[in-house]
């Protein structure tokens, strides 16, 4: 077990050095679940909120990608800190920029729907600003349908839920997500693996997001349990209750139990 004196916090410098943002074309050839299926994100109080919101904001900045974060679960005790950190990172776009990105109609449609809801939201300040609107306590099912731009894409709306305990988080994940990818931000190893063991998703990214799973590809194809370290990440495949699960996390930076 890693002692508390050996444990290193995840810093922005580490985030910049690690290969979080893989080339999408290359990654897609390796495993389609990386980019074609959306992510869920789980954020615990004991986590690097700065890093988590940095990755979330980068995902939100591109609503046209099919593999971005669409669902977020935040521990109640850090919800205010999460909101403040995220809101400061969301970008705003001018009307001309929206038009150039073919997003103007989509954003109008999103704003029209959300304006009718009596719920809290998170979005950047300013008129005609863009970010995928984050809506508290509404299921993804409510926002399914065409974006209004005639392209068949879903509305760029991210659904958020708060939880108090890991058991509540697990219950929400089981109820709300069919995503194959989940990014879990938590500095407690036992708690993170409790979520992995109790849920039936496919790919688990601990304290990271959208890292290439290519080192595990041969073992995923064979449904073979395996573990290795490569490019400063720990990778493993586990068979749990008949489900093969792929797990990756930055090597040497987590966990504290």
Please supply descriptive tags for the structure shown above:
Aldehyde Dehydrogenase, Chain A, domain 2, disordered N terminus, 10-stranded mixed sheet, alpha/beta, 10 strands, single chain, 10 helices, globular, 257 residues
For the largest sheet, list the strands in their spatial order.
3-4-5-2-1-6-7-10-9-8
CATH topology: Aldehyde Dehydrogenase, Chain A, domain 2
Q: Strand pairing plus helix content: what structural class?
A: alpha/beta
Strand % is 15-25%
| Basic shape | globular
Number of helices: 10
* Main β-sheet description: 10 strands, mixed
* Counted beta strands: 10
Plain-language structure description:
- By secondary structure, this protein is of the alpha/beta class.
- It has a single domain, classed as Aldehyde Dehydrogenase, Chain A, domain 2 (3-Layer(aba) Sandwich), CATH 3.40.309.10.
- It has ten helices and ten strands.
- Helix 9 links the parallel strand 6 and strand 7 (203-206).
- It starts with 11 loop residues before the first helix and ends in a 7-residue tail after the last strand.
Q: Secondary-structure map with pairings?
A:
Elements: H1 12-17, H2 24-30, H3 33-36, E1 39-43, H4 49-60, E2 69-75, H5 79-87, H6 95-100, H7 104-115, E3 121-122, E4 133-136, E5 157-163, H8 166-176, E6 181-185, H9 189-198, E7 203-206, H10 217-221, E8 226-230, E9 233-240, E10 243-250
Parallel strand pairs: 1-2, 1-6, 2-5, 4-5, 6-7, 7-10
Antiparallel strand pairs: 3-4, 8-9, 9-10
């Amino acid at each position: 077990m890693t002692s508390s004196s050996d444990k290193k916090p995840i810093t922005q410098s580490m985030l910049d050095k690690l290969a979080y943002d893989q080339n999408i074309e290359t990654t897609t050839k390796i495993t389609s679940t990386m980019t074609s299926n959306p992510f869920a994100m789980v954020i615990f109080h004991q986590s690097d909120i700065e890093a988590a919101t940095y990755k979330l904001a980068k995902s939100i900045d591109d609503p046209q990608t099919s593999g971005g974060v669409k669902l977020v679960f935040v521990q109640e005790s850090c919800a205010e800190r999460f909101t403040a950190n995220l809101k400061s990172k969301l970008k705003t776009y001018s009307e001309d920029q929206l038009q150039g990105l073919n997003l103007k109609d989509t954003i109008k449609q999103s704003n029209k729907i959300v304006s009718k809801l009596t719920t809290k939201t998170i979005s950047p300040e300013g008129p005609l600003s863009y970010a995928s609107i984050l809506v508290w306590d509404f299921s993804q099912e409510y926002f399914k349908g065409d974006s209004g731009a005639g392209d068949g894409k879903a509305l760029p709306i991210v659904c958020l839920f708060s939880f108090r305990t890991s058991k509540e988080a697990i219950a929400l994940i089981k109820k709300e997500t069919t995503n194959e990818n989940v990014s879990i931000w938590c500095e407690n190893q036992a708690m993170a693996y409790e979520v992995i063991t109790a849920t039936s998703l496919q790919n688990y990214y601990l304290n990271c997001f959208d890292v290439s799973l290519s080192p595990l590809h041969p073992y995923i194809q064979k449904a073979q349990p395996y573990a290795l370290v490569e490019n400063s990440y720990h990778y493993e495949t586990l068979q749990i209750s008949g489900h093969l699960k792929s797990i990756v996390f930055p090597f040497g930076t987590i966990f504290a139990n």
